[in-house]
Amino acid sequence: MSYEEKGTWVLLTIAVGGYAVYLFLVLPQFLAGTPVAEIDWVTPMLWVIVGAIVAGIIGRILVEIVSPSDSTKGDIRDKEIDRLGERVGNSFVVVGGVGALILAMFDVDTFWIANALYLGFVIAGVLSGVTKLIAYRRGVPTW
Known about the structure:
The protein is an all-alpha fold. It has helices at residues 3-31, 42-66, 76-105, 110-138.
């Protein structure tokens, strides 16, 4: 498994795990009937984002300690796979941004706008990672 593919696994795991932690922290408040204007979502979101960054750095280091790669330099195939995955992922960043923009136009609470953006980022990361992993297994499509 290449260095880039290992990194994709780490980041994909962190994206899913980080969002699960965020939901674990915020969803009980929502389900308890707390008005969205009073839900404490900013602090959990910031901690999860910072935690994901730190976990990404530590995860990459630990994976390389446990299973060292021959090289950390990507080749042409890695670059093509990365480009394909980022294209797929970026489309959902745009979808999340447009969704947040529409919510802002309707003057919806900041809670919903921020969560639409965050969900867009998470979906983008997950789809980007899944696309890359599929491309590593099946190859890059030649359209």
